[in-house]
Amino acid sequence: MTPIRPATSNDVLRLREIAEASFTPYLERMDTQPAPMLADYAALVDAGEVWVTERDACVAGFIVLQLRSDHVLLDIIAVAPDAQGRGLGAELMTYAETFARAQSASEIRLFTNEAMTENLVYYPRRGYVETHRAVEDGYSRVFFAKRL
Length: 148
What we know:
5 helices, alpha+beta, Aminopeptidase, single chain, seven-stranded mixed sheet, 148 residues
């Protein structure tokens, strides 16, 4: 397993690059840019909500986790296209569970855009259960939860 560490301000540009590269393929399926392409990564890093994993001394993926009163929200997960298929996404998902348990959270929640059909198959394989669908912030989202 690759070490996962809190992101720093030095990582912000790379986070933006990874988000752009990871979510650009979805542009042809959506009416607007995916939310992770518009996120304020500097603010998320300043809030202590971003963790990164590296390959060859370069940030190759990241996860945004937000502690809520009754759960942890997995807000964004992204792996650089040239690092995909190597298990980094799975490692980040496992880290989310470790983080949630350390915070005494009994559930992780996440959402994805319904146009990101790959995620609709991937998250259930990781133990997430679809809870509902809704339009939120102009996006057609599918919501999932996993009890820990």
